[in-house]
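#struct-pred

JT: dropping the chains for the assembly here, can someone run the whole complex?
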Amino acid sequence: MIFPYLPLPTKAPVPSLGGAMLRYRPIISVRVFGPLGARLLDGCVDCGSDDTIFPLSLARKLGIDLTGAPQGEAHPVGGTIVPYAYAAATLRVSDGVGTCEWKATVGFVDLPLRWALLGHAGFLDFFDTDLRGARREVFITPNPLFPGAHTIQRAPSP
Amino acid sequence: MMNMQEYLKNRAAFPLAELAKHRGEWVAWSPDGTRLVAASRNLDALDDLIRAAGEDPENCAIGGIPDTDCVLGGLDVS
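RK: done, full complex below.
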């Protein structure tokens, strides 16, 4: 499956990008299912994140029960310790050609995340991932660890 | 039913100047990725705003527009 990087504007020229006024990010929209419904939330492919993390408010909306949930904690770069709760959720990604749906144990953090973190456990462990910088796209292929269903809707557009 | 190919193509081509107006906010994308149907500094408020715009929250992708020019470590909560 192929997902184009999402260009996002910056406030000032970025020196490391030759003065560009935007950054391209490997963001994939992930559908998260719970007892009360589903939501489509942007997630950033993040090999620096051990877990896959969503905002706690999403769990509330979807009716995902965090009562007695196992707890984890993260140490963001230069930040303070951030606790989060683990729960099982069904996730789905699609590029319109292929769709993958699987159940994973993910974290829910009580922070206003700009986007979910698609980290190793729950996401990257299940996909062979190619960040194609020149093409500004993410290519993911479910690997033998992928625990869900992979369906092909149709051939990719030329 | 969303056409994901159309959505991804349109969203990647969305005008940056329009997105720049929403720095520091969460935005909800139309199912075809051609427009923003809602925006708020309060993530929890988006569902109601999406419904008020006549769309279904289950079909509108939500994402944040960073208010910073550089994110390190992915955990951007600014």
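JT: nice. Residues 2-152 of chain A form a domain with the Cathepsin D, subunit A; domain 1 fold (CATH 2.40.70.10). Chain A has a mean pLDDT of 93.
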